[in-house]
TrEMBL record:
Gene: eutN
Pfam families attached to this UniProt entry: EutN_CcmL
Protein name per Swiss-Prot or TrEMBL: Ethanolamine utilization protein EutN
InterPro entries (alphabetical): EutN_CcmL (IPR004992), EutN_CcmL_sf (IPR036677)
Main location, first listed in the record: other
Gene Ontology CC terms, in alphabetical order: bacterial microcompartment
Domain of life: Bacteria
Subcellular location: Bacterial microcompartment
Keywords: Bacterial microcompartment
Length: 89
């Protein structure tokens, strides 16, 4: 799992059939200090997060296949939760 900040949403006019009807968001993975941790990613979003939301991501492709109901979905990243608050480490 990876914490991230939602930068916005995106859409694709040409896409894999498993993405039809799915919401896609652009997220910036973050470290424990909220600093960027790698490049921005595109993730599936079934929770309806908004720009600026702190979320938890998973790279579990089995979860993405479950969301899309396609065994051949190329999706890797999915939003699995909204972070309400973090305790200092």
């Amino acid at each position: 799992m990876q914490p991230a900040t939602v930068l916005g949403s995106t859409r694709a006019t040409v896409k894999h059939q498993s993405f039809i009807g799915q919401r896609l968001v652009i997220v910036q993975p973050t470290g424990v200090d909220d600093a960027p941790d790698g490049p921005p990613l595109i993730a599936l979003d079934i929770l309806g997060c908004r720009k600026g939301d702190q979320v938890m991501l998973t790279s579990e492709s089995a979860y993405a296949r479950e969301i899309t109901k396609h065994d051949d979905s190329p999706a890797r990243w999915s939003v699995i939760g909204l972070i309400d608050e973090r305790e200092p480490s």
